[in-house]
Design a protein that fits this description.
heterodimer; A: 110 residues; mainly beta; seven-stranded mixed beta sheet; 52% strand; B: mainly beta; six-stranded mixed beta sheet; 0% helix; globular
Chain lengths: 110, 112
């Protein structure tokens, strides 16, 4: 899983609560990404950031928010507006093209 | 949206056999990458092939790219039980080199 850490590994929340997933990298990469993976599916891009203090929406940004105040950190907030938040969330970083992934956070909302 | 579609969705082979999985995509690309994911874990990069390349090797992996057919294949030779995982292709397009679009994946099971 390289130099990217995600915490926690498992997260449980009640419906209606916002929750923030952590992603930290020590690879000195400029770009960072958040993906969502549902069972048996590929990855779908939520948000990405190519540089500090800047980020863009991916394909499924609704109900999510991010910040990029430091190069090393790219936290993802899953808001109560996200209709189906239960999923496996993966963070990644890259410099030139190849992406390095964290171990993922499995979020369960009941 | 999913750019790539892998085929087959699932593949079961015996140790020592070769495994071939295919990826088709819809729009012109700059690069195509293959990633591996063990169950419940993050993805690991395997190989990147550029749009002007036709074939690339890395250890027991061989990747081909046919831009006229918008398709790529990943061949794993002499498979091992440890190769059991899901394999995904991912593409990026001109002007968005840092943004990857992933396929739906092939689940490979290698049995002893």
């Amino acid at each position: 899983d390289g130099g990217i850490t995600q915490s926690p590994k498992y997260l449980f929340r009640k419906e209606g609560q916002n929750v923030t997933l952590s992603c930290e990298q020590n690879l000195n990469h400029d770009a960072m990404y958040w993906y969502r993976q549902d069972p048996g599916q590929g990855l779908r891009l939520i948000y990405y950031s190519q540089i500090v203090n800047d980020f863009q929406k991916g394909d499924i940004a609704e109900g999510y928010s991010v910040s990029r105040e430091k190069k090393e950190s790219f936290p993802l907030t899953v808001t109560s507006a996200q209709k189906n938040p239960t999923a496996f969330y993966l963070c990644a970083s890259s410099m030139w093209g190849e992406q390095y992934f964290g171990p993922g956070t499995r979020l369960t909302v009941t | 949206s999913q750019q790539g579609e892998e085929d087959p969705q699932a593949l079961s082979i015996q140790e020592g056999e070769n495994a071939t999985m295919n990826c088709s995509y819809k729009t012109s690309i700059n690069n195509l990458q293959w990633y591996r994911q063990n169950s419940g874990r993050g993805l690991v990069h395997l190989i990147l092939i550029r749009s002007n390349e036709r074939e690339k090797h890395s250890g027991r992996l061989r990747v081909t790219l046919d831009t006229s057919k918008k398709s790529s294949s990943l061949l794993i030779t002499a498979s091992r039980a440890a190769d059991t995982a899901s394999y995904f292709c991912a593409t990026d397009t001109a002007g968005t080199a840092s943004k990857l679009t992933f396929g739906t994946g092939t689940r490979l099971q290698v049995t002893l």
